[in-house]
Design goal:
Elements (H helix, E strand, L loop, with lengths): L9 H10 L9 H7 L5 H28 L3 H15 L11 H12 L3 H5 L6 H16 L2 H7 L6 H15 L9 H24 L3 H28 L3
Helix pairs in contact: 3-4, 3-5, 3-7, 3-11, 5-10, 7-8, 7-11, 8-10, 8-11, 9-10
The structure holds pyrroloquinoline quinone (PQQ).
Pfam family, one: TENA_THI-4
GO molecular function: pyrroloquinoline-quinone synthase activity
Keywords: Oxidoreductase, PQQ biosynthesis
Length: about 240
């Protein structure tokens, strides 16, 4: 790696970041099977129960970034992410938040609220991977933690894939349970616009740009590792 090389232009750097999508968990064999209608109800339930741990970590991760961030303008925007997941209204309306929507997804696949929230189905590998993300956000400079959220660049497609394939592949799942995926598409786009602007502004030397790519790879590895652990916990 030539870290003394001239920095990439903003466009080149963004293209390098986007190119990392080739390692996104959309390509993981478990995800390919899931969106291809090949998963059993037990495997779908296992995925939903394990992914709930990621959902529950996200607002804590965003609070860690806020607590490290000395830039008021960033904090004003970033705080919305916590409310997106935790909600900011009663527990029935559209402002009930992502964790509530994921709980409804759980109920739609046959997992009661108490069972989901007990975390008793969470595999150790999933727990370690999610905790690694949270711990990174607690310790890293806030711009690096922002960069690690950029896997969301690739998330709208995975949500759209589920919305397109699940109703036909898994007719036993109440379609209202898929609202979480629908809700995330515009939010992910907004998050990426902000996270990408922070990243392109902050990582300005070639060595820093390379560091940003390594951080994004670390986050891709977290998502991939989660599916490895889920696949192992719910074999064919
Ligand atoms: O379903 C998915 O595959 C997926 C992936 C990701 C991601 O790429 O990190 C997120 C989400 N969903 C998601 O729903 C979400 O709210 C979210 C927040 C973040 C983040 O890093 O701050 N990633 C993701």
């Amino acid at each position: 790696m030539d870290t003394t090389a001239a920095p990439w232009s903003r466009e080149q750097f963004e293209a390098q970041l986007r190119d990392k999508g080739r390692a996104y968990h959309i390509h993981h064999p478990f995800n390919v099977r899931m969106n291809g209608g090949k998963c059993s109800p037990a495997q779908i339930r296992g995925w939903v129960a394990n992914r709930f741990y990621y959902q529950s970590i996200i607002p804590m991760k965003d609070a860690a970034i806020l607590s490290n961030c000395d830039d008021r303008e960033t904090r004003r925007l970033w705080i919305a992410r916590i409310l997106d997941h935790d909600g900011h209204d009663d527990y029935s309306g559209s402002a009930a938040g992502g964790i509530e929507a994921w709980t409804r997804l759980g109920e739609a696949v046959g997992i009661a609220r108490e069972e989901l929230w007990s975390l008793r189905h969470v595999a150790p590998g999933v727990r370690f991977a999610c905790d690694a993300y949270l711990n990174f956000a607690r310790r890293a400079p806030w711009q690096e933690a922002v960069c690690s959220s950029l896997t969301e660049m690739f998330a709208p497609q995975i949500h759209k894939d589920r919305l397109a394939s699940w109703p036909e592949c898994y007719p036993w799942i109440d379609a209202a349970g898929l609202d979480y995926f629908r809700s995330r598409i515009p939010l992910a786009q907004r998050d990426v616009d902000h996270g990408l602007a922070v990243t392109l502004d902050h990582f300005t030397t070639r060595a820093m740009q390379q560091r940003a790519l390594d951080i994004l790879q670390f986050k891709l590895d977290i998502l991939w590792t989660m599916l490895d652990a889920i696949e192992r916990a719910y074999p064919e």
